[in-house]
Amino acid sequence: MEMPSETDASGTNKSGQALGRKGADTRRRLLDSARELLNRGVKLTAAAISREAGVSAPTFYLYFENIPDIQLSLSDEAGEDMAEILGILELPWLPSTVSLRSEQLVRAFYAHWDRNRPILSTRNHQSDLGNSDFNHSRRRAAMPIINALSQRICEAQGSSRVSDRDALARSVIVYAAMERLAARGSARTLQPGDLSDEELIRAEAHVLALLFRTAPEHATD
């Protein structure tokens, strides 16, 4: 039995026992194994995950209720992988660097999706189907970025040109567009004229720069 004194951020298992170091390590191996199987395109089952993790199949149910439960944990972890994106939004966006920062932002968002594509695709699909748990996970990941985008828009345009609510609405649209384009992966839908990914990234960055560029009457010397 795990000793309560060894508890960590993982909390308790499904039997209500506090997770010690060994339990936390087992749970971590199950999560890593599920992620690896997803990356290889293998259908997730408790047996497959347990086998990949090197534990018995019943062990899976000590830590997760079912497959959606472990998918949700992976979704939450992927949603926390936003430090690079937030870091770019927190940098100084001077008039001379707006285009550069916009491109850095787009590329960081694409990189986030490239690192986490299988689980993010699962999360968004379940969210679109109306699964409230996955919808909340998606929202928790999105809102820090959306709020940071909104702040950038307000700073660039000025309160006389855009209200806080309008800036927030625009940031929601920006985030949704960025997410949709990054989520395409190898699916090349709505890409007329044989446009390359690089051309689309540059175009997306240009559109963002128009929003984030300081309005003439709001510019400072």
From TrEMBL:
Domain of life of the source: Bacteria
Any one GO molecular function term: DNA binding
PROSITE patterns associated with the record: HTH_TETR_2 (PS50977)
Gene3D superfamilies per record: Homeodomain-like, Tetracycline Repressor, domain 2
Composition skew (Polar residues), residue ranges: 7-16
Residue ranges annotated for the HTH tetR-type domain, each copy included: 24-82
DNA bind region: 45-64
Keywords carried by this UniProt record: DNA-binding
InterPro entries for this protein: Homeodomain-like_sf, HTH_TetR
Keyword Metal-binding: no
Chain segments carrying region Disordered: 1-25
Protein name: HTH tetR-type domain-containing protein
